[in-house]
Amino acid sequence: MIPASLREQLEATRGQRHAVWAGRDIWLANEAWGELIVSLQGAQVLHYLPAPETGPAAGARPAPTADDGWLWVTPTPQPLPGAIRGGIPLCWPWFADERFADESPERNGPLHGPARKADWRLEAVDEHEEGVELHLSPSERLHGQLVPRAVIQANARRLHVELVTEHTGETPVKLTGALHTYFSVADVHACRVEGLAGARYLDKLDGFAERVQQGELGVRGALDRIYASNQAPVLDDGRRRLRIAKQGSDSTVVWHPDTALPDDTPAEAGRHFLCVETACTRIDPVWLVPGAQHVLGTTLSRDEDTPS
Ligand SMILES: O=P(O)(O)OC[C@H]1O[C@@H](O)[C@H](O)[C@@H](O)[C@@H]1O
């Protein structure tokens, strides 16, 4: 679900174009394979909606409506230089407040790191009949030793986002981060996240107490958990099942604040998202050595696309 003002920009797009929304430069595609919007602030995917499926299997499911995008964006984003809440923010080079996890002078910035607020450059758009591939890099250096870049691929079957980190410095660096995906859901209290049963997790709402997930996760109230899991979870909101495949990630974060919503999120809109994040956190930090690279990736697809 995206704000009406963003939907209007999309309706005015045939093919691809640049525009401005909420003070940010955005890039839009409205193509035969589907729709994609990326904000150049943070290299943040704001919207993805694949073209409706055709063929016999498609008939069994309701046709998507204009509101059926897979990602959610708040209708009232905070002004610049704040980050947009929604889509897939890139948390880099640390997740949450892990800037306190060591004493490096590089770790004195904002929650979830500076990347999501920074300006990124769209360096290449590789367009082909079946979809598109975008390459983005930050306009300014964000870390003394680490250099990130983002690759976004979209087609009629999946959205793939990759955050690549290259170590160009001299000493090992601890890296955490997240693809902080805000999924659009019919009602957060009717969501199930499958694939975490039996996984160990840290409960941030209870002082990071360690627990084990009993059965599949049904979302009923506030939750903020870091699961130790490298499995692809499936998010089922009752109308759609999305598979969240991951690369280079042994943590899955599930977050929703229930009624304690942030200031930039109206109550009605706040019922319609759930964050399921592909992450590297305090339980699986990456120690990058000089010359090495790390890829944090996620691939979103309809669960039916994937053989069981
Ligand atoms: O409001 P922000 O900075 O985008 O963070 C949102 C949430 O992000 C989640 O990833 C964290 O686990 C939460 O603790 C945090 O509140």
UniProtKB/TrEMBL annotation:
Entries under InterPro entries matching the protein = Aldose_1/G6P_1-epimerase (IPR008183), G6P_1-epimerase (IPR025532), Gal_mutarotase_sf_dom (IPR011013), GH-type_carb-bd (IPR014718)
The alphabetized UniProt keywords are: Isomerase
- CDD domains in the record: D-hex-6-P-epi_like (cd09020)
Catalytic activity, as annotated: alpha-D-glucose 6-phosphate = beta-D-glucose 6-phosphate
Q: What is its EC number?
A: 5.1.3.15
Using the UniProt record, name the top-level EC class of this enzyme in a single word. Answer: isomerase
Q: Which domain of life is it from?
A: Bacteria
Q: Which family does it belong to?
A: Belongs to the glucose-6-phosphate 1-epimerase family.
Task: Quote the PANTHER family the UniProt record gives.
Answer: APOSPORY-ASSOCIATED PROTEIN C-RELATED, GLUCOSE-6-PHOSPHATE 1-EPIMERASE
Protein name per UniProt: glucose-6-phosphate 1-epimerase
Q: What is the lineage of its organism?
A: Bacteria, Pseudomonadati, Pseudomonadota, Gammaproteobacteria, Oceanospirillales
